[in-house]
Specification:
Immunoglobulin-like, 3-stranded antiparallel sheet, mainly beta, 4-stranded antiparallel sheet, 7 strands
Length: 139
C-alpha cells in the first residue's frame, strides 16, 4: 500500500481548475506548479516518476528519510530582454518547487537510484528488508 501525503491540498482544486478561467487575464504571477508524480510498487521496490519539465538535472534534489521521499527542484530565471523590448506577460514559473510523500515501507538508500531524461525523474527505491523479531533471554 502506498500512502501519498500532499500537505494543504484540496481534493476539489484539480476538479474545478479551468472551469472559471478567463481567455485573457493580466495581473498576478504564475501559480507554483505542483510536481506531478506516479508511484508504483513492483515486488521489493517502488518506482516513482516525477514530471520536472524545463529543469536541469543539477537543480534537482532527492532526499530519503526512512519511508519519506522528498523531491525538490529549482528553475532559475534566465531573462533575456533586448533593447526596446517590453515583457507584457510571463506565465512561466521560476523558483523552487518541492514535494514529499510517504511510502508504506522504509527505503534502502544504499541501493536506490535516480535517472533523469526528457523532463521526467525516475526513482527506483528498493524496500529495506524488514528486521526479524528477536527474542530476548531473560537473565
Amino acid at each position: 500500500m502506498v500512502n501519498i501525503v500532499r500537505s494543504g491540498a484540496d481534493p476539489f482544486d484539480d476538479f474545478f481548475r479551468g472551469f472559471f478561467v478567463r481567455p485573457v487575464e493580466f495581473g498576478g504571477g504564475p501559480e507554483v506548479p505542483p510536481i506531478k508524480i506516479d508511484v508504483k510498487e513492483q515486488g521489493d521496490a517502488y518506482k516513482v516518476h516525477a514530471e520536472l519539465p524545463c529543469i536541469r538535472k543539477e537543480d534537482i534534489h532527492v532526499n530519503i528519510d526512512g519511508s519519506v521521499v522528498s523531491i525538490s527542484a529549482e528553475r532559475k530565471n534566465e531573462k533575456e530582454v533586448k533593447d526596446g523590448e517590453r515583457v507584457l506577460r510571463t506565465e512561466r514559473y521560476f523558483g523552487k518547487v518541492s514535494r514529499s510523500f510517504q511510502l508504506g515501507q522504509d527505503i534502502d538508500e544504499s541501493r536506490s537510484s535516480a535517472r533523469f531524461s526528457d523532463g521526467v525523474l525516475e526513482l527506483t527505491l528498493p524496500k529495506k528488508a524488514a528486521a526479524a523479531a528477536k527474542r530476548l533471554t531473560i537473565d
